[in-house]
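re: the backbone from monday

yeah here it is again, tokenized this time
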């Protein structure tokens, strides 16, 4: 295992791009990669990278207004796990990632082990790439009710955990935040953990990356479908968000294909950004400007990813739970 510390840079001038030419992503690590090509250091932006046997863990802190504006991210800490082989369905790898995830969640929670927690599974359970949150809730070990009806079955080291999958506005007619705010006001959790499917800015990171953020989450931001943000300001309690990218925007794929091809063919290399944008606009116009792409095996992948996150959360929320206990709960 080795550690590497990087500095980030600020673009020399702001880029004003159309929606098509803008690479949309929910991942803080991809936002930093866009910045790190410039030479001007950004105050309040730091990154620490650790390489393990099967994955890389990246801790990024955005601690100034300048860094927040440059990144397009809310101030806070963002932890990213890059797991290139996560799509290969390796149970041992899944467990290693779940344990690492639990360690980071426990560190960022920084709460008494008895503090009650509400877990929120965002997303549409009828749309497979968006069903990550509800599927995680299905595998979660909830205990809040047991403290009232069967307290004798809970040893020291278990925590009061409850969970909800509020659905989406198109199904319920109610903003997810409004539903969750009502629950928070009623049960008074010490922390809200939000699980959601994310959008990546590159094909390589789809289903191979896990992001944890202690700043909350704006559902749908990565695909331009902004909903009300889940944050300490909106809910009145700390919010920890966990997500895995399950989709990528087709415009992003096409834009990167043009850029890579341009390196080999002189006519394409002469194209200005405005001309590339015009090409993409013409190609995507029949599709209404936006098309979201996900792997054809998403049905199995989404179950696997939900299992990894649920196992990590069960370990993090209940310190007395062993890896074997967490494994049994999933089956």
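seq for it, each position gets an aa:
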């Amino acid at each position: 295992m080795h550690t590497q510390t990087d500095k980030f840079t600020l673009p020399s001038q702001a880029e004003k791009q159309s929606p098509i030419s803008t690479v949309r992503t929910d991942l803080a690590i991809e936002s930093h990669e866009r910045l790190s090509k410039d030479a001007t250091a950004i105050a309040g932006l730091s990154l620490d990278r650790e390489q393990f046997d099967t994955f890389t863990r990246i801790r990024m802190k955005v601690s100034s207004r300048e860094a927040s504006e440059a990144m397009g991210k809310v101030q806070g800490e963002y932890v990213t796990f890059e797991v290139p082989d996560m799509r290969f369905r390796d149970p041992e790898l899944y467990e290693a990632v779940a344990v690492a995830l639990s360690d980071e969640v426990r560190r960022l929670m920084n709460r008494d082990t008895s503090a009650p927690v509400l877990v929120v599974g965002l997303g549409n359970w009828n749309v497979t790439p968006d069903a990550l949150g509800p599927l995680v809730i299905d595998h979660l070990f909830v205990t809040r009710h047991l403290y009232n009806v069967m307290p004798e079955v809970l040893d020291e080291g278990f925590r009061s955990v409850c969970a909800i999958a509020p659905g989406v506005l198109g199904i319920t007619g109610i903003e997810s935040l409004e539903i969750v705010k009502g629950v928070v006001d009623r049960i008074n959790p010490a922390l809200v953990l939000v699980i959601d499917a994310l959008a990546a800015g590159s094909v390589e990171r789809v289903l191979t990356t896990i992001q944890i953020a202690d700043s909350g989450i704006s559902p749908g931001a990565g695909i331009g479908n902004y909903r009300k943000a889940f944050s300490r300001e909106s809910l009145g309690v700390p919010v920890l968000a966990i997500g895995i990218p399950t989709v990528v925007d087709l415009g992003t794929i096409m834009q990167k294909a043009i850029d890579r091809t341009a390196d080999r063919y002189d006519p394409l290399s002469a194209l200005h950004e405005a001309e590339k944008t015009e090409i993409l606009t013409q190609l995507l116009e029949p599709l209404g400007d936006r098309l979201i792409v996900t792997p054809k095996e998403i049905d199995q992948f989404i179950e696997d990813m939900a299992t990894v996150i649920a196992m990590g959360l069960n370990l993090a929320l209940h310190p007395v739970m062993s890896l074997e206990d967490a494994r049994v709960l999933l089956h």
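The chain has one domain: 2-13+23-329. Strands lie at 2-10, 40-51, 56-62, 76-82, 117-121, 161-164, 191-200, 209-213, 239-249, 292-293.
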